[in-house]
Amino acid sequence: MDDYLDCLYTYVQENGIPQHLWTPEYRQASAQRESALAALENMLSPEQQAALERVRSAESVLYTYEDMALFQEAIILGKWMAR
């Protein structure tokens, strides 16, 4: 992304998205995910826990790239609709 889109993306991430995500449904789904992950981690050996953490870290990077791509496409769509 260019600097303008980076700035806009950061603004939306910090100011726009949180108000849409912190719904009761989102909080419930997030709590269920964390509970399931905690239960899984308690069953794993230290080596398996480390492997799971590496997977979660890599997954987080991928989600970031996917979010950025979705944001860029939304900007493109918005420009097209504004014509």
Secondary-structure content class? mainly alpha
The major β-sheet equals: none
Unreliable sequence segments:
none
Find the count of extended strands (DSSP E, 2+ residues). 0
What percent of the residues sit in helical stretches (DSSP H or I)?
over 70%
Distance, first to last CA: 22 Å
> In percent terms, what proportion of residues is strand?
under 5%
SSE order, one letter for each helix or strand: HHH
CA-atom Rg in angstroms: 17 Å
**How many helices?**
3
Mean pLDDT: 90
What shape does the CA trace take?
elongated
Assembly type of the chains comes to: single chain
Summary tags:
single chain; 83 residues; 92% helix; elongated
Describe the protein.
The protein has three helices and no strands. The mean pLDDT is 90. The protein has helices at residues 3-21, 24-43, 46-82. With 83 residues, the protein is mostly helical. The chain is elongated and about 55 Å long.
